[in-house]
Structure of Inositol-1-monophosphatase:
Amino acid sequence: NKDLLDEMYETALHVAKEAGKVIREAFYKEKKVDTKMSAADLVTETDQAIEKMVETMIMKKYPSHKFIGEESSKDGERHTLTDDPTWIIDPIDGTTNFVNSIPEVCFSLGIKVNKETVIGVVYAPIKEELFTARLGQGSYMNGNKLQASKITDLKKAVILFEGGASRDAKILEDKMANTHSLYTNARGMRSYGSGALSICNVAAGRGQGFFEYGLHIWDFTAGGLIATEAGAVVMDPSGAELDPMHRRVLCACTQEVADSLSKLLVHIDMGWD
Ligand code: IPD
């Protein structure tokens, strides 16, 4: 129902701005940091406070809706995606950046209805960049319409990637092989420390592709819609249709760059959310 979706979109913008205020406020202060799965997987009290605040706001307004959040998900816990409206959030994507006062940090909120992403909002409050998308209605940064790059040749492409938090030797070996192949075959590589913002950057024409093995549903749901609404391709790295619970994603400005990337990469299985 259109009115409900309009209202949910307004709510999404509102909670993103509230989350942004909290990030901005804490950004230049000392942070209380804890580790999760590995010494490379961080959480701060700000991640937890934002997630609690946002979950409370959403559940108060929409008690029948479902909520999936990074900090309330236990390691290895499997989520079930239902047809119910589901709010999927990452309170701070780029927590390691946040801890190091690197401005590439954002709040990410995607909403799925009938298992399809209908709303995506990614807000980078330090850079003051608000990315928004609604299914079938294009995507925007600070109100300006986004269009992904039209490049089709991988040799002319800049590829964004994230190493992720796993420190498993075999996984790291495969990831090194992937970066090696891409340094050999693409124009350049960048790693900014936020999966969500990397996908938005591809949507904004700041690079031609992004891939990661080992990220989570809350890292790519909102960005995925922002990218497809900007004309980019979002798929499983193998070339199959994206499985939102499978912890891997490939995004590219055109199908040609997506296919070239898919052929080059070792497809690492990092499990399901
Ligand atoms: C992480 C960031 C990082 C990516 C990890 C994510 P977090 O999210 O997006 O770039 O490599 O896979 O988990 O922990 O900062 O919200």
In short: The CA atoms of residues 85 and 113 lie 4 Å apart. The helical segments are 2-27, 45-61, 95-99, 169-185, 195-203, 217-229, 255-264.
